[in-house]
Amino acid sequence: MKEKTFILLKPDAVKRKLIGKIIKRFEDRGFEIVEMKMLTLSREMAEEFYKIHKGKEFYERLIEFMTSGRIVVMVVEGENAISAVRKMIGKTNPAEAEPGTIRGDFALSTPDNIIHASDSKESVEREIKMFFGD
Ligand code: CMP
């Protein structure tokens, strides 16, 4: 089933000049990029985006990191995009992510784990709306 998912390249990916390499993985896999832009998150947007983590031990560090530089947001489309992209990015903690996954190949720590991708249909809708509107 063809579907869309939302991907965010975090400030560490932009600073480390990994945007091209990461996008290439999705294009090589057969996904189509249907929306894309670069921006810097305001504190308000970062807090809205990660509101389910409010109160957690890592929340402040996460918000500070996410507002520390430019990010790239995109919508990609393809077969089973939500779960296929989640598999390609690897586990949240990059130290545990399999080699061959994006986090497993490019990161070792959190919150600077390179990339975020929506984990469900509901988050795809919410996250696309936040950055690209209806
Ligand atoms: P992401 O998939 O964008 O979802 C929530 C983010 O919080 C996660 O990636 C990490 O960047 C960050 N995160 C999750 N767990 C921790 C943790 N234990 N310590 C620091 N940051 C974390």
Automatic annotation (TrEMBL):
Its cofactor is Mg(2+). One of its GO terms (biological process) is CTP biosynthetic process. The active site is at H116 (pros-phosphohistidine intermediate). Pfam families: NDK. InterPro entries: NDK-like_dom (IPR034907), NDK-like_dom_sf (IPR036850), Nucleoside_diP_kinase (IPR001564), Nucleoside_diP_kinase_AS (IPR023005). SMART domains: NDK (SM00562). Its EC number is 2.7.4.6. ATP binds at K10, F58, R86, T92, R103, N113. One of its GO terms (molecular function) is metal ion binding. CDD domains: NDPk_I (cd04413). One of its GO terms (cellular component) is cytoplasm. Gene3D superfamilies: Nucleoside diphosphate kinase-like domain. Its main location: cytoplasm. Keywords: ATP-binding, Cytoplasm, Kinase, Magnesium, Metal-binding, Nucleotide metabolism, Nucleotide-binding, Phosphoprotein, Transferase. PANTHER family: NUCLEOSIDE DIPHOSPHATE KINASE. Belongs to the NDK family. HAMAP family: NDP_kinase. Major role in the synthesis of nucleoside triphosphates other than ATP. The ATP gamma phosphate is transferred to the NDP beta phosphate via a ping-pong mechanism, using a phosphorylated active-site intermediate. This is Nucleoside diphosphate kinase. It comes from Methanotorris formicicus Mc-S-70. The lineage of its organism: Archaea, Methanobacteriati, Methanobacteriota, Methanomada group, Methanococci. The gene is ndk.
